[in-house]
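Re: the 707-residue chain
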Amino acid sequence: MSLHKKSRVAAVPMGQMDWLNDVPTQGLSAAHVMACLQRWTEQGLLRHIDSALAGQLLRLDAHAHPALLVAAALLAQMEGRGHTCLPVTDLCAPPVTLLGWPAAAVDGPQGLRALWAHLPGTLADWQAALQGPPGHASVRHNDMPDQGQPLVWGGSATAPLLYLRRYAGYEKRVGQGLLQRASEALAVPEVTAREWLDRFFAPNTEALAETDWQKLACAVALRARLSVITGGPGTGKTYTAARLLALLLALHVGESPLRVALAAPTGKAAARLKQSIDHALTGLQAQVPADSGLDLGALIARMGPARTLHALLGARPDTREFKHHAAQPLDVDVLIVDEASMVHLEMMDALLQALPATARLVLLGDKDQLASVEAGAVLGELCRDAAAGRYSAGTAEFAQAVAGQTLPASCRAVGAVPVLAQQTVMLRQSRRFKGAIGQLALAVNRGDAVAARAVLPASFVGFTALARMLAEDANPSQPGALLALQPTTPQAVCDLALGASGKPSYADYLRLMQPGPAGQDAETHAAWVSSVLMAFERFRILCAVHQGDWGTQGLNAAVQKALAGQGLLKITGEWFAGRPVMVTRNDAQLGVFNGDVGLVLPNLEGKHKVWFLDGQALRSVSVMRLAQVETAFVMTVHKSQGSEFEHTALVLPPGGGEVLSRELVYTGITRAREQFTLIEAEAGLLEAAVQRPSVRASGLAQRWAGG
């Protein structure tokens, strides 16, 4: 099991303390536990905030069970890794797999197993220790009044879960909110809807495609105020969403116009969503009869730009609060959210609170991508049944009547019928990923490491001029779509940035930048800036970690030095022309948000600004106003979500088994449109990652099980 946001583990041997050997016969004391947690914190196994939570519980209740203190520290650690709760059953034995600690921290004299020898061994014993006696101040149970307890007991009798207080609240509201939206049946004018769907979707001519899943998704979305459309790259999620919008507009009744909003977690993803929706709607207008009164151009203008979720909700500086909430909801009838896999539990809670009860919510995303850095994997939980379908007889009848689609027998429900599955459709045909990159992504996604390796060309060990010649000789007319490297040093990454592979590189945009604009008028300058930004967006280097020579920090410094060494960059202080920067903190006043990437370029007066490209629109911010940024020649895979590049290079760091996962590699591969380069700092990293699927603990599935 792979866990995100791993704790940094210092290479320090376990201490020589003998406190575990001195545990009295009456059992482990709170003092023993706090000493153990402090020791693990000093060694980097736990964060300071993890052990601090245990200390806070001990201050609240001097008689807190030692097992409760251990569970609290691990719960905080799990939240930092993206989990929303801690399964109590995982505590019945030393949680070696759950934590992924090094052997010395597990088996040493003061290690995990040594401590667990003094802790409860059965689920019943753990439950008694965590629940405590009446009046216990730390953990709230379902039958107890809410007195602000920091921990909450949840889950079922056989699969109990322990929560931090605020995550229990988020999960309860999100679980209930999504289930309620999916359960509320809406009246659908079936005959009229069928006529419009037949007009928007051409007859399916592909022999293997018995079901038009895009058409089905539009029909299903009419039935309730929640719909989920998932699928891999090129399956047409935004294409489908555009037709759904046209369908909703065609069926809209009432004097006021249909109010539509588009949003995504990042600025780049929002810009791509808007561009894709506008393009699809413009093309669709030609299929609309002139006398129908359906004006898709007016809908495009009325929607306005797509926004980040923070901008949509009205983020407030230095607070978790938003302008829009239950008492001041969004002014919207339909909200489409793209890249929903990146939406964490807290953000989904805020979004549902701000969304009017009468509004439709459409979530788009790839269920197999990385979940958000923050805690929660809401889309993954929603799409748990997506591949299997599990559609009811009623859903099958509706699909036939409204979309003219016959659901495969393999997608019919056997036994229980999940409510949320009836509003979820998985698009299954990729119109873009049919070549080598698509084959690689599919192999990784199904966990087939052998097939993934077979798709890749033989790896070059090292990367030199000779390797370049071999790559070009293999296909002299066009460089191959895939390249695999196993270099011994990060110099190979610098060589890629310089264009040594013959594929798109950073040298392209820097050579375009160097002459400057052809004229001094605003139009010529804007065209130059746009061309440089688009050239920069052709290539990106992605990696898994921040620290070390193979992380973002080391590689950014190395690539910058290599580009300067070739005369492509002229570094004059912090803000030099050509520097790519990523915003690391939301600033609504400036209109920039965490994850936005821009380039430092001069304006007409020669003053440096950071320029951003949103679709075709340019915007700029003075470098003096951007305090929270970092150089972005290299970025993490997490930060790349919502973006696509003509050529993507994915760096897997040495010893990275604990941070690599199947989802990370899949996400990295699917950022590439035409060419993909895999860089393994040591042999076998691809196989290790593919065999390590990411799992996040959550109670959402339990909350929906009865719905």
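Confidence is low (pLDDT under 50) at residues 1-17, 473-478.
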